[in-house]
Request: fold
Amino acid sequence: MKPIEQMQTPDPRNVEHWRADFPILGERVHGRPLVYLDNGATTQKPASVIYAENAYYRHSNANVHRGVHLLSQRATDSFEAARATIARFINAQRPEEIVFVRGTTEAINLVAQSYARPRIKPGDEILISAMEHHSNIVPWQLLCEQTGAALKVVPIDDTGALDADAYERLLSERTRLVAMTHLANALGSINPVERLVAASHARGVPVLLDGAQAIAHLPVDVHAIACDFYAFSGHKVYGPTGIGVLYGKAALLEAMPPWQGGGDMIRSVTFEKTEYNEIPWKFEAGTPNIAGAIALGAALDYVDSIGMEAIAAHENELLAYATDALRVIPGLRFIGTARDKASILSFVLDGVHAHDVGTILDHHGIAVRAGHHCAMPVMQRFGVPATVRASLALYNRHQDIDALIEGLGKVREIFGT
Ligand code: PMP
Reply:
């Protein structure tokens, strides 16, 4: 990613155009205009994505890779075209390196069970960090239980940034895989992924990156990063739920056994022996989420039409505006202040539980997330039970932040803090 100062200057007029693409932003919540600041949980969908899903069911619905009839060919062409769009979006070398899955969680479990499990022995180590989402912790704990391997955790500092020296120290001759987030969902910290991958590769250790958050906020180039696996979910990048992507280097995917058995992942079956399909279909057992994949392609086309650099510049400007405005609220403490940070404002308010903050804000039409954000170890690291998290997307604007500030004023009035 380019340093922020080299990015395009955001044009505040754009945001109104972009907002017009998202029908749900016209909703009212408890009688107030919706202020949607829960994009880290899921993003809203532009009309082009809703249209793509609808048009598929109206004009092309059929099963893929099987029928000789026209609709099946249309469905297959659109499904495979979406795969090619995704490959281009993250700069994968070949569409076959894109495996459709349900989401980030499934992608990580696939790597744990299909790549790691056959290779891991007792005493081997998997390296993760202290800022991971549960989806990038629990699959590795399951793997450790199954194989006798050990989970090692790279610490983070008080700002929520990764301790890069500790990372290098913890990479040992026992490390078999690194699994690390690109952008931390509870903190907003951006990891220096190119550096981490280079250090890991120098020791012959492959790297999986959890891109669930990064995919919507940073330009992602898997070739430049040189990671071995990259996982993300469609719904966090303006696409539908139930569809996601595992990128894997072709040579690694080819060497991995299938994860699930069923239709579409086979070439031939007899009771004696089954021959598996080629990558990526080897990993896509059963009828896939065809409409979801096509709509995810439309979502990435939408993002491309604006440009990730323009989106990042807009969101960074908004993050700086929001940080300055929130910082002066008495009793507010940020959790996550790393220098390299994007899209996430996580905080606690003295004397008020995060859930109460979230509930009161909701009554003012403001959607934020309150809780542990599926990152309980992060909460433990900072000694808080929960935080309030406002998370940004391309359609957020200064008014949304002003509404949040006003809402927090109401919370403080109610609680007398
Ligand atoms: N990793 C991170 C960093 C996330 O933010 C999330 C979603 N909150 C996930 C993994 C899991 O994504 P999904 O639920 O779409 O599988």
Q: What stands out?
A: The two ends are 41 Å apart (CA to CA). The domain at 50-304 is CATH 3.40.640.10 (Aspartate Aminotransferase; domain 2).
